[in-house]
Amino acid sequence: xxxxxxxxxxxxxxxxxxxxxxxxxxxxxxxxxxxxxxxxxxxxxxxxxxxxxxxxxxxxxxxxxxxxxxxxxxxxxxxxxxxxxxxxxxxxxxxxxxxxxxxxxxxxxxxxxxxxxxxxxxxxxxxxxxxxxxxxxxxxxxxxxxxxxxxxxxxxxxxxxxxxxxxxxxxxxxxxxxxxxxxxxxxxxxxxxxxxxxxxxxxxxx
Amino acid sequence: xxxxxxxxxxxxxxxxxxxxxxxxxxxxxxxxxxxxxxxxxxxxxxxxxxxxxxxxxxxxxxxxxxxxxxxxxxxxxxxxxxxxxxxxxxxxxxxxxxxxxxxxxxxxxxxxxxxxxxxxxxxxxxxxxxxxxxxxxxxxxxxxxxxxxxxxxxxxxxxxxxxxxxxxxxxxxxxxxxxxxxxxxxxxxxxxxxxxxxxxxxxxxx
Lengths: 206, 206
Hints:
2 copies of one chain form a homodimer.
Chain A: H1 5-14, H2 22-34, H3 37-53, E1 55-56, E2 63-64, E3 78-85, H4 88-97, E4 102-106, H5 124-132, E5 138-141, H6 147-160, E6 166-168, H7 185-193
Parallel strand pairs in A: 3-4, 3-5, 5-6
Antiparallel strand pairs in A: 1-2
């Protein structure tokens, strides 16, 4: 006896998830066989629903259910300040930190010389068009502090030169809870160079 | 901005898979957003198809698309010999080893005293009924060689005592490719006790 056809097809389909090989797909398929019908049906529905309701915002390219997205269409936000990120999930992370009140621009990835991903494969042209159309005062390039992220940031920074706007990068330094012993030299070196003067706390009167 | 509702619902639904937490579910949901529509649709269809077409065989309880399953309905197989396993996937594994030509009985789990899983929670009664209905000569209890598997095997073996049939367990020993240095003492002890005499190969004439 072979594995039933519908289970084989499901194992095949589940391997489309990143990092899911034959063995994990098999375990996932088994769990679906055991699941009650309504739970499995809701999972299937949720997959199709996302495909039907999510599309990139026509201005900033964040994944959204409305177009333009709620950030781009919010008059309370600073429309002169764009924060450039790699992916939609980075927008969610930035938003929950409540630090940025401007707009975003989602590149949809990073440049990678080895993999042949040039600036034409990510939304650099769309960013330049937004800046050229006027009204932008600052672009914060918040790609990840990785090799690809830095390559992308440098390329974008060069393209924005001479456009009369401020171009910035997030500060680099020690992340909260880090153990110096385990941090890489680059992070330590950044944290050292950008060291901040500590104002001594005034002595408490007893 | 919060994560769009349909993505939140998908992340929720994907956490029904075993071992998938919020972070992996988020990565899986992102991959669905990026997937082309047809691939995602096929994934959703495959989930529902499995729920609609798979049910346990009414005799041996293996997951099957036909009832009775192709093994139980095959007259060429030995209907006097039942191999008892924990799960449907164990049937697939046994079948691909091509060692068993009898029937199967899928328990649907193991007994576990701590978790309160008694013999009534797995299909022990159904096995006894099959044996009582006659015609069975041997029952091979092939539960996994784990604590729970052994507990289950002992319980079933006791129940089958006095029914006039042969009750067997698979041999224990060294698995192929094992490194003695890394094997547990129990396995080594089994392999030692059940050691086999090697017939010396006849010397080749030159």
